[in-house]
Design brief:
The chain is α/β, with parallel strands linked by helices and 150 residues long. The chain is built from 6 helices and 5 strands, in the order βαβαβαβαβαα. The structure holds D-ribose.
């Protein structure tokens, strides 16, 4: 499993906690920035992580900004990305089971490190259910994308 991660300055303090967790679990990851706490635009990190996931270079992406909202909006404009904005464990689990989400976004100004790690664990460890009704809906998203990106 390979994970692409990114944050802006608003998510910069939570990212080391995420990195420590991934390293402890021996999960391969790449940090696409930012690399200091200077004010910056969430757009470029969301785009870099999402493009790497969409290209198949990484299995999943994890994005952190102040709220997670800017990151998720940008990520969901990349073809092939299903980004879930989650601040609870139930949603993180369900979005894998039902939506086969490939990117997770959350906000450092919304949740603390303990809850973040529970959310990340649920997201990483829950597989897509593969159930027909969910697979059909995910396929519909892809079909809608084909139309929109033409
Ligand atoms: C930065 O101040 C903040 O707007 C950003 O981190 C994020 O919350 C945007 O959605």
């Amino acid at each position: 499993m390979k994970i692409a991660i990114g944050s802006d300055h608003g998510g910069f303090n939570l990212k080391p906690v995420l990195i420590e967790y991934l390293e402890k679990r021996g999960i391969e990851y790449k940090d696409f920035g930012c690399y200091d706490a200077k004010s910056t635009d969430y757009n470029e990190y969301a785009l870099a992580v999402s493009e790497a996931v969409a290209a198949g270079e990484y299995d999943l992406g994890i994005l952190i900004c102040g709220t997670g909202i800017g990151m998720s909006i940008v990520a969901n404009k990349v073809k092939g990305i299903r980004c879930a904005h989650c601040h609870d464990v139930f949603s993180a689990r369900m979005t894998k089971l039902h939506n086969n989400a490939n990117v997770l976004a959350f906000g450092e100004r919304v949740i603390g490190p303990g809850l973040m790690l529970d959310i990340v664990q649920a997201f990483i460890d829950t597989p897509f259910s593969g159930e027909e009704r969910h697979a059909k809906r995910v396929a519909k998203i892809a079909a809608q994308e084909e139309k929109n990106f033409k």
